Amino acid sequence: MSFNQNKSNRRIKMGMVGGGPGSFIGEIHRMAARLDNQIELVCGAFSSDHQKSKQTGEDLFLDPSRVYENYQHMMEIEAQLPPEQRMDFVAIVTPNHLHYGPAVAALKGGFHVMSDKPATVSLEEALKLRDVVNETGLLYGLSHTYLGYPMVKQARAMVTAGDIGQVRKILVEYPQGWLSHFEENSGKNKQSEWRTDPARSGISGSIGDIGTHGHSLAEYISGDVMTEVCADLNIFVQGRKLDDDGSIIFKMNNGARGALTASQICAGEENGLTIKIYGESGGLEWHQQQPSTLIFKPLGAPMQFLSAGVDKTYLSAEAHSACRLPAGHPEGYLEAFANLYTGFAEAIRALNENYKSHDLIGIEEGVRGMAFVEAVVKNSQSDQKWTKI
Amino acid sequence: MSFNQNKSNRRIKMGMVGGGPGSFIGEIHRMAARLDNQIELVCGAFSSDHQKSKQTGEDLFLDPSRVYENYQHMMEIEAQLPPEQRMDFVAIVTPNHLHYGPAVAALKGGFHVMSDKPATVSLEEALKLRDVVNETGLLYGLSHTYLGYPMVKQARAMVTAGDIGQVRKILVEYPQGWLSHFEENSGKNKQSEWRTDPARSGISGSIGDIGTHGHSLAEYISGDVMTEVCADLNIFVQGRKLDDDGSIIFKMNNGARGALTASQICAGEENGLTIKIYGESGGLEWHQQQPSTLIFKPLGAPMQFLSAGVDKTYLSAEAHSACRLPAGHPEGYLEAFANLYTGFAEAIRALNENYKSHDLIGIEEGVRGMAFVEAVVKNSQSDQKWTKI
Amino acid sequence: MSFNQNKSNRRIKMGMVGGGPGSFIGEIHRMAARLDNQIELVCGAFSSDHQKSKQTGEDLFLDPSRVYENYQHMMEIEAQLPPEQRMDFVAIVTPNHLHYGPAVAALKGGFHVMSDKPATVSLEEALKLRDVVNETGLLYGLSHTYLGYPMVKQARAMVTAGDIGQVRKILVEYPQGWLSHFEENSGKNKQSEWRTDPARSGISGSIGDIGTHGHSLAEYISGDVMTEVCADLNIFVQGRKLDDDGSIIFKMNNGARGALTASQICAGEENGLTIKIYGESGGLEWHQQQPSTLIFKPLGAPMQFLSAGVDKTYLSAEAHSACRLPAGHPEGYLEAFANLYTGFAEAIRALNENYKSHDLIGIEEGVRGMAFVEAVVKNSQSDQKWTKI
Amino acid sequence: MSFNQNKSNRRIKMGMVGGGPGSFIGEIHRMAARLDNQIELVCGAFSSDHQKSKQTGEDLFLDPSRVYENYQHMMEIEAQLPPEQRMDFVAIVTPNHLHYGPAVAALKGGFHVMSDKPATVSLEEALKLRDVVNETGLLYGLSHTYLGYPMVKQARAMVTAGDIGQVRKILVEYPQGWLSHFEENSGKNKQSEWRTDPARSGISGSIGDIGTHGHSLAEYISGDVMTEVCADLNIFVQGRKLDDDGSIIFKMNNGARGALTASQICAGEENGLTIKIYGESGGLEWHQQQPSTLIFKPLGAPMQFLSAGVDKTYLSAEAHSACRLPAGHPEGYLEAFANLYTGFAEAIRALNENYKSHDLIGIEEGVRGMAFVEAVVKNSQSDQKWTKI
């Protein structure tokens, strides 16, 4: 990851909401924030149970006085600290229904926000949040991890450069198998509990959780916008309350068509996100489980395997600056995640010091994601073929 | 390929309709018929142009007196030859619109039929052909090549044996790129000419040509029947008359759901047929371009790669008997095709000598395939979500 | 496989020595000879047991009068048949120690010879056989199957064209696992019996059987000659009489260096022949188990995957003419083998009709192969580092 | 990465020698040390040029007073700081010839040492260093990155558990292409400068740099010791002073045999380290470029692909505790490296608090590595076949 040379002489300070004991995503955000040494965790409200929160603070070697009882308290107290001490931004890593509240509180308290995806639990919330972001003029980042991978950036750059011509077809598959059985009440898997609970997760399971990754990848790489969907959502596991499987046919604004399957009952699959995108003169293919390779299939010429790596001069500037190591030294999920965090730190510096940095994945993508979910769910309940997003 | 030990002391005799100069599929049928030494090509009506037909006969070292002016003539004359000389069956390798006529003529002339797929150019014809097959009591085989692969048979056997539990989800992708540009009138590609011409190919391009392979694989492996479809067919190449792309969501009779994409404008793709099938307790995955491997993903245990090969005692009887070589000695498309032909020869012997052989892929599959195509085309033109097959 | 347009109006006639019941390689030769319809099996001496031989003849629908008691008899009688009936060439598919005798008898009887590899059971025999070939002026072909693969031909063409620059390093691995246990006397595996018996197989097991494939590939692709070896041969399975494993370091005549492992105790491996060849400006990699792909690694540019296929215009003429199907329709081991047979038939026609055809893999390669085996065995028993071939 | 629950309430403090501007490996060590939040960089002597060193300190947000002029100074001053402030250990990330000096100085100053590999520039130094380690009783860790990968630990555990039976054959390939041309004096690549310079790198190039990784992997996974080598080292690039290529045949102490190629002129390769290990009843295969997969090939049963991941209950305890993420979320080189650092921090805590932790990769492996390099170089210059290590 390359950094702007003009960076100020200090780390960016992060507070965190969520990420207490048993959280899957909290420690991932922390490792990602830590990796490039540009961000320092200084405070948190890690759990609604203050004892648990304190335990997490201790495990993280934090100053106990900056482990707060709740996020409201955190915003309030931190805002009163001298600028050189107080947090610069808040990372939100709670379940979906608890994204909106902390985000609004942080922004209104004068803190930038980096939120786990999805932005909110509903489109309505997302639209309101967008207003708050726009009013405050503060930064809002959304952790669409897969958009942090170098070869996803390379794919986007190649489409933009016309390497595959006008895009015609987009195929996304996102099979997982971890919800093949009913484990919601087993107490063993905190993830499966809240992710299948409408009150905490929202109106969709598989589409909200992983379908949105497919949606954002399709839009990010193609540079286009999804406009209509036709969907079939299903609940395969008895007793489950939200869809655990869905297949979608879609249209993009430029005439491209596509298909997207997101399913969590594909027994035996791990995290098999794949995207294939075809234009008039070639295709691109990327597999999240082998993220350092981008397959390029020019019409009439041999297929090419492009590699991530700081030594790969054929990469686009955006892809290249997202690499840390020479090719053949695999970087993975945490490094992609770290690219989002380091980019966010850079954006804060750029704002503070008035220079230009790359665009963030932010509230616009968050709104589009929630609109996608609502359109898919609505279509799935309807007899009509197409629903506009 | 293992053979019944009771086989009669002669090769099965084949006549051919179609397969003259410039034909892609004709020589494939002939190589397939030849490979296992159970079938002998004895006569043909290879082209509507008799000169061309004679040339093909000569290239094949055939007796010139058995190269006929047309298929009607062939049926007539061959029927008058003594039994030990005349053909046993007719292979039909013409464009789609010329399947029905020769098939009916052959059956009525007393000859078994092995037809290139699809069975006919329309569902109506397919239903009429089924009546003729049933009336004559003769054998009718359909060359669904991919069903001849050992590991496709293995997948079917494993589903039947319950190795993945009740089937829930089926994902089929069949991307090709060879119709990315308009070459219909270039004179260079006889294939692209007739396959995109409704008069010769039928009401659908991509779905009729390759979507039907996906449909038959899904039904064959799962042992279930596709009952409803929701489809989006497209013509991406200007001037083309038939769909060159389609994505379909579907329902199976047992509650399983699926998605199928068949597209011939996926620039850079070769013949990328892939099927993934997931049950309650595991998944299976097969890639036509690496056909000797079947990936088995049992829930909670390591993924397995099963190999085709006569030395693989873990294979099902059907898969095992479809292999000729030890594992690691790749067999491919022609061997799968040969399995269909050798199986057909075996079925003829079984009928003649009154023993039992494996079931053929035949007219029932042909009818279901045409019903699938018609339902897909109808749904694609409609605003309604689901169309019954 | 493309054929010369001037071909005579008949198939080339083949007799066979060996290939009776229980033979692995005999039926492979027959399928290979059959596939392209250029060769017709007309006679044979399939087994030393005449009853078995007759059974094989019957299974092959041969005229019983042309199933001979032994190969001497076959040469004698066939030579007396009128030219339009008698065999053109003899295929030899016996164990190694029975290659030389039939080959000499055939050549002296006026018949061309296509022999299973290795040419003979010793270098001494190979040299004598070369003399006979040269004296008679007849054709001698050696079935180095892997040299029949299109993408091996493509690799050779690319090295010749300078696509990787001057060759520096060659890495060959040929792991198999089928001799991991002692099954020589089990009666179950006729292969393991004779292949581990010095009287029938020669002075080496693993190197003679599969190491020679690695040797011939390295020489064929690089266009260079192996000149010195340093070897470590081992017998891992108790009771075995010949090496079942070997690793070799070698030098080529142009300064390139390499390493070759051929082992039959690599438990769990099938037929994992792989070659990697590196020049000053790029590398090539080919895996026999995925034979339709050649990986090209140009220095400083993305890795390329070249595909076999009649539609691949970027292939060299030799590679292209070795394909039968469009890319994505896998061809395999039998097709590669058929390329050798069809090429041999073509060479016979070229000789008869006095035109030029491609060079055969023949007795020179046979001699070099036996010299390689003897040098490796000699070196392995020595304390000296290098032994000249 | 799981941690001991009894960890003390502070991070372990690290000082660093080397890793100034232009260093490749320095920032890798720092990212690895940072990832799991168990280690804090507090001081350094990053460059022999103090200005450069200060710049690095500033980039790392270090207290300028703890950026030292040289390592001697650092040891001296740090030793005088109060225990709660001073560094606990020294990370050494200089070129090879500067490993020994700082390591001895650190140990004699009372600091544990984590050193980049190889341990020293010669066997003689390594033996002396071992004495110092043993005398001081302090911890010494060696950054053999590849031993930090979960699936390498899994391979070791499976061999130990007897899953492949007695080991017979080990095949290691380590092809790189980055030294295909002479860039030593180009000024562009600091790496290629010192790594090909005997004064800084030692008596071997390719073997010292990457062959040692192959050696340590072979010993670590098999649990055995390499005892004899036969080697062919080469310099392919004109003007280069150290071997850029080598192939080795070797013997292990239990009777297993193997081959190892380490080459830096394999044009087009990235970092293609691969190990295959075969026992009496199965094989294992691991590719560094796809590190989260371990291929297991049990004799007579389907090949298995084991995946790294915290959700994979079939993994050994050692492999499992080396994972941070669920399967399908790729971890890579930095995570493997972080496992070494976090394990080292844990070892320091274990020593301080008197509990038991896992064994470190340390000075014994360092000595064996240098003995391997010296034996290989000696053998390569000799006419004798085998040299004892």
Can you summarize this structure?
The structure is a homotetramer of 389-residue chains. With 389 residues, chain A is of the alpha/beta class.
Please explain how this structure is put together.
The structure is a homotetramer of 389-residue chains. Chain A has helices spanning 25-35, 50-59, 71-80, 100-108, 123-136, 150-160, 190-195, 198-201, 206-222, 317-320, 333-353, 363-380, and strands at residues 12-17, 39-45, 89-92, 112-115, 140-142, 167-175, 226-234, 245-252, 257-263, 274-279, 282-287, 293-298, 303-307, 387-388. The first copy, chain A, has a nine-stranded mixed beta sheet. A five-stranded parallel beta sheet of chain A has the order 2-1-3-4-5, sandwiched between helices. The first copy, chain A, folds into two domains: 12-145, Rossmann fold, CATH 3.40.50; 150-327 and 367-380, Dihydrodipicolinate Reductase, domain 2 (2-Layer Sandwich), CATH 3.30.360. Chain A is globular and about 65 Å long. In chain A, helix 9 packs across helix 12 (363-380). Chain A is α/β, with parallel strands linked by helices. Chain A contains twelve helices and 14 strands. In chain A, strand 1 (12-17), helix 1 (25-35) and strand 2 (39-45) form a beta-alpha-beta unit. The two termini of chain A are 35 Å apart. Helix content of chain A is 35%, strand content 21%. Strand 13 of chain B pairs antiparallel with strand 13 of chain D.
Structural key phrases:
389 residues, 35% helix, 5-stranded parallel β-sheet, 9-stranded mixed β-sheet, alpha/beta, disordered N terminus, Rossmann fold, Dihydrodipicolinate Reductase, domain 2, 2 domains, globular, homotetramer
